[in-house]
Design brief:
- There is one protein chain.
- The chain is mainly α.
- It folds into 4 domains: about 140 residues, HUPs (Rossmann fold, 3-Layer(aba) Sandwich), CATH 3.40.50; about 160 residues, 3-Layer(aba) Sandwich (Rossmann fold), CATH 3.40.50.620; about 50 residues, Helicase, Ruva Protein, domain 3 (Orthogonal Bundle), CATH 1.10.8; about 100 residues, Arc Repressor Mutant, subunit A.
- Helices cover about 45% and strands about 10% of the residues.
- It has 20 helices and 13 strands.
- The strands form 6 sheets. A 3-stranded antiparallel β-sheet has the order 5-6-9. Strands 1-2 form a two-stranded parallel ribbon.
- Strand 7 and strand 8 form a beta hairpin.
- It binds one RNA strand through helix 4, strand 8, helix 6, strand 13 and helix 11.
Length: about 500
RNA sequence: GGUCCCAUCGUCUAACGGUUAGGACGCCAGGUUUUCAUCCUGGUAAUCCGGGUUCGAUUCCCGGUGGGAUCACCA
């Protein structure tokens, strides 16, 4: 019988959740869902010195924003909550467990007490590095007699517990992505398992917790491959069955070609969300970084990803994070939004841009968002894009001149347009009828469309690029003073040309 | 430096050992159009190198080169 699929992500609350890290969460989540398994979140806060206040909340909330929530462990629902019966899911609340298991290892001689000072360890390391040896602990404390150990402990001498690695063992394991990997135990240091402050190191904690939480697949970044043999040694020492190991290729920075790092600018998930990247776009983009369903489909919903996901379609090599492609995904997802969804999502950005949206009818706001929808790469651009609707923009008179048309023609055309629009009843403005009317008018007067419509559009927007003049006038037509605004702006343009 | 891992267009990636090496992003050109965007057409551009195995290697093997990861009382 197949074991139940139980996978976990185990972030450290040492900072915000970053964009590259998300993919590991995503793949764990997809795999769990695909196999009707459980997705667990565990907080690895064993490094007390590096804790950052608020980062636990940031991590769990960012995940929730992306639509990823844990079946067990911390999750976000109007605040930080926890569920599941294999807790605690925070390692600092599990200290007794680690101590117990570390002691078990000492009793079985798989681990030993070490009293060496930081100073001695540093000297040892410097010495080895000078000789070009890989730095490793020299097992000195392994030779301590039980009496000496008891004495040192009773006198409260600072100590750690180290893994006792036997030399010349070949440690082999099978990785679901990378295949068979073997590393000699000679490469492995007598890793510290329990620190002098009583906290476990990652290596002890991860093995104990994965065992107790019955994790079936350890899915993590491939930077952990060199540590996996240590973990295997621990599983063997405890007599526990091994989980499956799945290591994921890294996400690389376009700039450095190296692993995407936190210090490299705005890589926080929250920052991407703030810029107006849609969760679905981020997920879609990230999913395809290192994984491919082997079809030519590019756009996937989360459900589709769940259905398609499997480890055998995973890549082994790192993938560069390309913002251009994310932008493209984002624009695709923005274009798919229904107008009311777009409105809700854009609201904060409009407000931020100082636009008093409550002073305008809802259908006006909807209209202008529709006009800009296909032009948006990020929601955060919306304020800048639509500001000309709310405030007249200044521009160079030269901008009104279309191609090689002379100034007088433009002026003449604007004048006749203005007179014509002036003569139209306001009702025409409100019912999207301007395009037909104006085109008819231009035809009658034998005015070339470019020589009239370009300056008209510039007059209305003050911009080199924008939606078309009819669409813009249709939007203004919704406002009670729409006709007035239009005529005013044309007037301003005429003045500029004088 | 030791160890481990990896290698197809600039980027993300397809290709039972047999394809004109395909798609997507980007870029370029054309079409639609009053500009931009959208949309449509087309184009640009890749199997790291050298040996094997084979009738035939992008694909399998070996070596080189290149890149990455890791070697803490950090995870």
């Amino acid at each position: 019988m197949l074991k139940e699929v139980r996978v976990r992500n185990a972030p450290s609350p040492t900072g915000f959740l970053h964009i590259g890290g998300i993919r590991t969460f995503l793949y764990n989540y997809l795999f769990a869902r695909k196999n009707n398994g459980k997705y667990i979140l565990r907080i690895e806060d064993t490094d007390q010195a590096r804790l950052v206040a608020g980062s636990l909340e940031n991590i769990v909330q960012s995940l929730a924003d992306l639509g990823i929530s844990a079946d067990e462990g911390p999750y976000w629902d109007n605040g930080l909550k926890t569920r599941g019966d294999k807790g605690p899911y925070v390692q600092s609340e599990r200290l007794d467990l680690y101590k117990k298991y570390a002691q078990e290892l000492v009793d079985k001689k798989f681990a030993y007490y070490c009293f060496c000072s930081a100073k001695r360890l540093e000297e040892l390391r410097n010495d080895q590095e000078a000789k070009k040896f890989p730095p490793k602990y020299d097992k000195r404390c392994l030779n301590l007699s039980p009496d000496e150990i008891a004495k040192k402990i009773s006198s409260n001498e600072s100590h750690v517990i180290r893994l006792n690695v036997q030399p010349d063992q070949m440690i082999e394991f099978h990785d679901l992505v990378y295949g068979d990997i073997k590393i000699s135990s000679n490469e492995i240091d007598d890793q510290i398992l329990l620190k002098s402050d009583g906290f476990p190191t990652y290596h002890l904690a991860v093995v104990v917790d994965d065992y107790l939480m019955q994790i079936s697949h350890v899915i993590r970044a491939n930077e952990w491959i060199p540590s996996t043999p240590k973990h295997i040694l621990l599983y063997k020492a405890f007599g526990w069955d091994l989980p499956e190991f799945v290591h994921l290729p890294p996400i690389l920075s376009k700039k450095t070609g190296k692993k995407l790092a936190k210090r490299e600018g705005d890589v926080a998930v929250a920052a991407f969300l703030e810029k107006g990247y849609l969760p679905a776009a981020i997920i879609n983009f990230l999913a395809l970084l290192g994984w491919n369903p082997k079809t030519e489909q590019e756009i996937f919903s989360l459900t589709e990803l769940v259905n398609e996901f499997s480890f055998d379609k995973l890549h082994k090599s790192g993938a560069i994070f390309d913002l251009d492609k994310l932008d493209w995904f984002n624009s695709v997802y923005i274009r798919k939004l229904k107008i009311d969804e777009l409105l809700v999502l854009c609201l904060p950005y409009l407000i931020k841009a100082g636009i008093k949206i409550d002073r305008y009818p809802k259908n006006f706001i909807q209209k202008i968002l529709t006009l800009e929808q296909e032009r948006l790469k990020k929601l955060s651009e919306i304020g800048d894009r639509v500001k000309y609707f709310f405030q007249e923009q200044d521009y160079e008179p030269q901008l009104l001149i279309w191609k090689k048309t002379d100034k007088q023609t433009i002026l003449k055309n604007l004048n006749s347009l203005q007179k014509f629009l002036q003569s139209l009843p306001e009702q025409k403005f409100a019912e999207d009828a301007l395009e037909q009317e104006i085109k008819k008018f231009l035809e009658e007067k034998n005015i070339r469309t470019g020589e009239a419509l370009w300056p008209l559009r510039v007059a209305l927007t003050g911009l080199e690029a924008s939606p078309g003049p009819f669409e813009i006038m249709d939007a203004f037509g919704i406002l009670p003073d729409g006709k007035e605004i239009i005529l005013q702006r044309i007037n301003k343009a005429i003045e500029k040309l004088f």
